Amino acid sequence: MKKALAVFAFCAMSSMAADWTGYVVDQACAGKKEDKGAAEDHAACAARCIKGGSPAVFVSDGKVYKISNQDKVTAHAGHKVTLSGTMDGDTIKVDSVKM
User: Fold this and answer.
1) To bridge 78 with a disulfide, which of 12, 16, 46, 65 should be the other Cys (CB 3.0-4.6 Å)?
2) How high is the pLDDT of residue 42?
């Protein structure tokens, strides 16, 4: 019984709403080192790649997270944002985006 309660509590906590601050980028560029000289171009590049079919991902504190509802973040490609939503594993379901 104690194990069942512990599992239930963990599952409930993992689906609680939270906020994360980071960058919306395309999956193809998410693992690359940032080129400091191309910061202005990165937003346009990320937008092109996402429009071309590369999934949008969220990068925060060096970690890359998948986005389950892509339509919420595509307009913010290349920008620093705060996402509000829920996380399941390494995937965020976005409720809102603030720049």
Assistant:
1) 46
2) 80
